[in-house]
Design a protein that fits this description.
Layout (H helix, E strand, L loop, with lengths): L20 E6 L5 H9 L5 E4 L3 H8 L10 H11 L2 E4 L5 E6 L14 H10 L8 E4 L7 H12 L9 E4 L9 H7 L2 E5 L2 H12 L6 E5 H32 L3 H8 L22 H8 L5 H25 L6 E5 L14 H12 L3 E5 L12 E2 L2 H7 L2 E4 L4 H4 L10 E4 L7
Parallel strand pairs: 1-2, 1-4, 2-3, 4-5, 5-6, 7-8, 9-10, 9-12, 10-11, 12-13
Antiparallel strand pairs: 6-7
The structure holds nicotinamide-adenine-dinucleotide.
Length: about 425
């Protein structure tokens, strides 16, 4: 293959094989599928890739496998128009976006095996002048030392005949379709030419500003955002623990403290969940363990929080013989169906195991309860029969429930639903 030395990437079909795709999105989950669908409905010919056969099949049938507002209509329209098609492995395209998971292992060390596999899988589809963007959240150094290194190992020269950049995704689940387009994007290449190539790509469809930097800076920016949130939530959670110890209302304390013109304490909760805020701070710790005592302490405070909630319920349960404990919410945040890394789920699992009484769950976003031995019931039934109510998620559906229904049972309100 004749290598190109042109640092500008033309995001149309340019390669010698006449590839029919402008963009190949590798990993069609919560980030990849909305990105693919948005690009496909904006005139790009998009190939989506997923290693799970059922995901490929579902998308090619014009359907979706995740819950995200407006996504089903976009995917249906793009598949019908022929601008989006899913494949089991990468196909040639002008740009490749890697959107695969980046979890951590049992010791909180980043697990980059999906990024490595995705990068290796696209090598065969790569053509001179192509752009490879890592969108997955990763520790600083990954775009250069893993992605670019794998391409270099295969004979490519990043910055010369292929372009490698990191563009972290900061979308909010539930608002992804809008945020994928409207948010500012930080784009960092492994060389200045790679930064330009990456920024060119995003400037074509991003309405927000595209901010250029190095790959390592872009990688740390994303982690810094989520660690900031984690540390601040940890402070609110620590205050909630203190208030519980002193018998004070944390919501009242925080509301009054926030009347100070330069104070803005966040809301406590049952812990920190999801696959970003509870995970990403560890990626900073991984590269600078001795310089991150605050980040590590915040992680511990937030990880401990579900146990603090269970302890509160345990104290209440001592007043009953075999209390009926109704838990409101299982997801990791309001108004979504995602229970990955959910502290609410952790609380319910711990309560079920503690055998303090009968545990039931109210979760309008799920059709079954994933915790063995715990029934899913309606809010009305739960409030009629519960001795103890534990509010774990501030779903909109719960804010519509009448306040006086909560007066009969004992309540542990971890999200301040009743103080709003
Ligand atoms: N979900 C979010 O709100 C969000 C926000 C910002 C950043 N991120 C980051 O984006 C990345 C992706 O997250 P997600 O939530 O979309 O994950 P996800 O689990 O929803 O989706 C990832 C998809 O990649 C597929 N996959 C795994 N290995 C593959 C491979 N080698 N080739 C092709 N497909 C493969 C999986 O089958 C899955 O469908 C992660 O690094 C995450 O931290 C997520």
């Amino acid at each position: 293959m004749e290598p190109s030395t042109n640092p500008r990437v033309e995001h149309t079909t340019q390669d010698g094989d006449g590839a029919p795709h402008d963009v190949c999105v590798v990993g069609l989950g919560y980030v990849g599928l909305p990105t693919a669908a948005v690009l496909a409905t904006r005139g790009q010919r998009v190939a989506g890739v997923d290693t799970r056969a059922e995901v490929v099949e579902t998308i090619n049938a014009g359907r979706i496998h995740i819950v995200e507002p407006e996504l089903d209509a976009l995917v249906r329209a793009a598949v019908a128009a022929g601008t989006l098609r899913a494949f089991p492995k990468p196909v040639p395209a002008a740009a490749f976006l890697i959107c695969v998971p980046t979890p951590f292992d049992a010791h909180h060390r980043p697990d980059l095996t999906y990024v490595e596999a995705a990068t290796r899988s696209l090598v065969a589809a790569l053509r001179p002048g192509n752009l490879v963007v890592l969108e997955s959240t990763v520790p600083p150094g990954t775009s250069r030392d893993l992605v670019a290194a794998i391409l270099a190992e295969a004979g490519w020269r990043p910055g010369e005949n292929v372009f490698v950049a990191h563009a972290p995704e900061r979308v909010l689940p539930g608002a992804v379709i809008r945020e994928v387009v409207e948010n500012d994007r930080v784009v960092g290449g492994v060389t200045p030419a790679c930064t330009e190539a990456g920024a060119d790509f995003y400037e074509k469809f991003v309405g927000g500003e595209v901010l250029r930097c190095s790959a390592e800076t872009a990688e740390l920016v994303k982690l810094a955002e989520n660690a900031f949130r984690d540390v601040n939530v940890a402070y609110a959670n620590e205050l909630a623990n203190v208030c519980d110890r002193l018998g004070l209302d944390a919501w009242e304390v925080i509301r009054l403290a926030n009347r100070h013109p330069r104070v803005n304490i966040l809301r406590p909760g049952p812990g920190v969940g999801g696959h970003c805020i509870a995970v990403d701070p560890w990626f900073i710790v991984a590269v600078a363990p001795e310089h991150t005592p605050l980040i590590q302490a915040a992680r511990r405070v937030n990880d401990e929080r579900p146990h603090n909630v269970v302890a509160q319920v345990r104290t209440l349960a001592e007043r009953f013989k075999r209390p009926r404990i109704a838990c409101f919410g299982l997801t990791y945040k309001p108004d979504i169906d995602d229970i990955r890394e959910s502290p609410a789920l952790e609380v319910v699992q711990a309560l079920a195991q503690a055998e303090l009484g009968e545990v039931v769950v109210v979760e309008p976003h799920l059709s079954t309860c994933p915790v063995a031995g715990v029934a899913l019931v309606s809010a009305e039934e739960a409030l009629k029969t519960a001795d103890i109510v534990v509010v774990l998620v501030a779903h909109r559906a719960f804010t519509r429930l009448r306040r006086e229904w909560f007066t009969r049972p004992s309540v542990v309100d971890t999200v301040g639903l009743l103080s709003r």
